UniProtKB/TrEMBL annotation:
PANTHER family: 5-OXOPROLINASE RELATED, HYDANTOINASE_OXOPROLINASE. InterPro entries: Oxoprolinase-like. One of its GO terms (molecular function) is hydrolase activity. This is Hydantoinase/oxoprolinase family protein. It comes from Nonomuraea thailandensis.
Length: 320
């Protein structure tokens, strides 16, 4: 039996799915015997932590600096061009001083050019980890967007959601001891609890995505939810049903440079390998992981040979 769980302001809604049908409501004891739990949550109103943001790049007007709310931010010298050319050496001393004195543990690191070459973000992460051993660090290159401010905003929000994601994952583990938990992605699919803790932003609108999937399954006649006589199935149970229908999924987005077909094939192989590794981290059984989609788009108004690559991988959950 698989259970779907929709988290909301009221008590969680739980459905049990087996043999093509879902049953609601589900007794607490029965839920604890599930082979896996698929959790749908929207994090739009979740508590956020103050973030220490480090931008690696050139100086800019104050209005264009990192937006951190109650957190703190700094801009240090370094970064790369969109083609991977170094713009300046990384100011490691400035990174070290900021990490040691900012007083926070949730960090977001964004470097110019990191979707092409992430070396400076990785170096900053190593320095922060050495100065603040308990630090939780988000690197913007893992989100793949070419625009610095878009990546930076996502990295900051991901870092800010980290503690609340950890609390949610801990609560699910306490309520369902021994039941492997997956969390619904905003764009569809599931990720493991470990992945959710590290990349909560991927699940920012998980419940909304599950509600849409559940409604589509019910409208299409491919599924049903059995409820007590005369009781209308609420949106929470439909979202829970949609969560239970998901499977592990992961995406990789990169800016790559390739001067010819052979070089492009090589970087695509690397992206495919990374996507397969990531979907296993997201909870797919290793033998089931496979590539589902690859898109390659040339970047306009930039030097020839620059492409935006997006690879989607999926697989069967290893549990249940």
């Amino acid at each position: 039996m698989i259970i779907g769980v929709a988290l909301g302001e009221a008590a969680p809604t739980v459905v049990a799915v087996g043999d093509g049908a879902a049953t609601w409501p589900v007794a607490r004891g029965a839920a604890r015997n599930a082979s896996r739990a698929c959790v749908a949550a929207d994090l739009g109103g979740a508590r956020t932590a103050p973030v220490a943001a480090i931008r690696v790049g050139g100086p800019c007007p104050e209005a264009l600096g990192p937006v951190v709310g109650s957190g703190v931010a700094t801009i240090v010298r370094g970064g790369h061009s969109v083609t991977g050319r170094p713009l300046a050496p990384l100011d490691t001393g400035a990174v070290r001083r900021f990490a040691a004195t900012c007083g926070l543990v949730d960090f977001a690191v964004t470097a110019t050019g990191s979707p092409m070459l992430a070396d400076h973000e990785l170096e900053v992460a190593a320095i922060v980890a050495a100065e603040v051993p308990q630090a939780r660090i988000t690197l913007s290159y893992e989100f793949g967007y070419p625009g610095l401010r878009e990546r930076e905003a996502d990295a900051i929000r991901n870092a800010a959601l980290g503690p609340e994601a950890g609390r949610i994952a801990d609560e699910v583990a306490r309520e369902l001891p021994g039941v492997p938990a997956y969390f619904a992605r905003s764009g569809g699919g599931l990720v493991s609890a470990h992945y959710f803790r590290r990349f909560p932003l991927t699940c920012d609108r998980g419940a909304a995505a599950c509600l849409a999937r559940g409604r589509a399954a019910l409208r299409g006649g491919g599924g049903r939810v059995e409820a007590p006589n005369g009781v209308e199935v609420p949106d929470g149970v439909v979202a829970a049903y949609g969560a239970a229908l998901g499977r592990p999924e992961a995406h990789v987005e990169r800016i790559v440079q390739a001067r010819g077909r052979a070089e492009l094939d090589r970087v695509l192989r690397d992206a495919r390998d990374e996507a397969l590794t990531r979907v296993v981290s997201a909870g797919a059984a290793p033998g089931s992981a496979g590539i589902e989609e690859i898109t390659v788009n040339p970047l306009s108004y930039l030097p020839d040979g620059l492409y935006r690559v997006r690879v989607t991988a999926g697989g069967r959950p290893w549990a249940g």
